[in-house]
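Researcher: If convenient, please comment on what follows.
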Amino acid sequence: MTRLLCLLSLVALFQPPTRAPAQTPVDSALFAYVKAIKAFDNHAHPVVPTRPDEPPDQDFDALPIGGIPPFAFPYRLRPDNPELIAAWREIFGYPHTDRTDAHLDELRALKDRVKRAEGDNYAVWVLDRLGIDVQIANRMAMGGGVAPPRFRWASFVDPLMLPLSVEAVKRETPDRLDLYPRQTKHLQRYLRDLGLKSIPATLDGYLTRVVTPTLENMKREGAVAVKYEAAYLRPLSFDPTPKAAAARMYARGGAPSFATYKILQDYLFGYIGREAGRLDLAVHIHSSDGAGGYFEARGSDPMLLENALNDPELRNTKFVIVHGGWPNTRGTMSLMAKPNVFADFSFLGNMLSAHTLATVLREWISAYPDRILFGSDAYPDNDLVGWEEWGWLGATAGRKALAIALTGMLLDGEITRNRAEEIARMVMRENGLALYRI
C-alpha cells in the first residue's frame, strides 16, 4: 500500500497543472442587443427632485438604513469602487478618469447643475441615462417628478402588520431599535389619511376600517404592487393562522413578545395578501441578505415563504421575491415553479460581479425564463453614490450578466440566437409589463 501511494504521488507530481475553468465570453452582438433594450425596472427607490430651498425627499423608503448602527457595505457600493468613475462619466459627463478631492468637488457641482437644469424632469432624465423605460418606485408616496407613466408605485404594507406596541420586539437587535418605531410612525400616517386617531377596538374593525381602506387608497392612487421589508424585522416564516387566534391576540393588546406577536402578524400577512389579490396588486417581498450589522440573514431565506405561498387562499395573489432570495437563489428557483411566483435580481447587480450573477441567471433561465424580472435597486446613499449610481451599477452588471448567461447557453447549443434575444426581451422588459398589465 505504501509503494502504491508513492507511485500515485509521483504521477501527480508530473501531471501538468490544472487550469481554472475559463469565464464564459460575451457574444458582442448579443450584448449589444441586451444593452439596447428599454428596460422595465422591477425594483428601485427613486428620489423626488427638490429645490435647494426645499427639504430633501424622505419618502424613498419606509426603512431607510441611515439610522441603524454603522455597518460594512459591499465593495461595489463603496465610494472608492473604480467602476463609479465610468458611472459618473456616462450619467453626468464627468470629464476625469480619477477621483481626487478637487475633481469630486467638481462632480458635486456638475450634479447640482444638472439637477437645477432638469428640475422636475430630473428623475426621468436619470432613467433615460440608464436605458430604463419604466421603473417600479418603492416609496411611501409618489411625488412631483416621480410619477406615471415612467414611474409606477409599490407602496409599503409592513406598518399594517404592526397595530400593537413594538416596545418588546424592537429590542431584539440594535438595528431594530431604529426600524420598528419607523413602522409605528408610518401606521399613524395611514390612520391620519383615513381620518382616524387610533386603531379600532377589535380585529374586525381594524381590518374593515384600516387595512382594506388603506389598500384600496393605495390602488386608487396608482399602486401596482405592495412591498414587504419584513425580513429586516422578523423571519419570513408567515404561516396560515386562524382568525380567532389573531383576534384574541389583538384584543389582548399591550407590547407582545415576538412569539406572541407573530400570531397576529401571520394572520394579517394572509389577509393583506388576499386583499392584494382582489385588488390586482402584486406582493413584493424582500428576500435577501440585507443592510445592517445585525441583519438576520437566515430569516430572509425565500424557502421560509413556502407555507404562505402554498396557502390555497393566496393562489390569486402574485408574489415577487425581490433581490432573488440571495444567497439562496436555488430555493427561489424552486419557488418559481408555483404559478403565482416571480423573482427579480435587483441588488445582485449592485453587489455581485456580472460573471457571478450570470451563474444565477443561467440556472433560472434554464427553468423559468417567464418568471424573471430585471431590477436595478437604484437607492440613494450619499452625494457620491446616489440612486443614480446604484442604478447604473445594477443596470450595467445586470445587462452584462444576462448576456453572459445567454452566451453560454448559445455556445452549448441549448438555445438559438433568436431564442436568446427573445429571452433577453422577456427578462429585461416583457415579463414586467405582463405581470403588472402595463
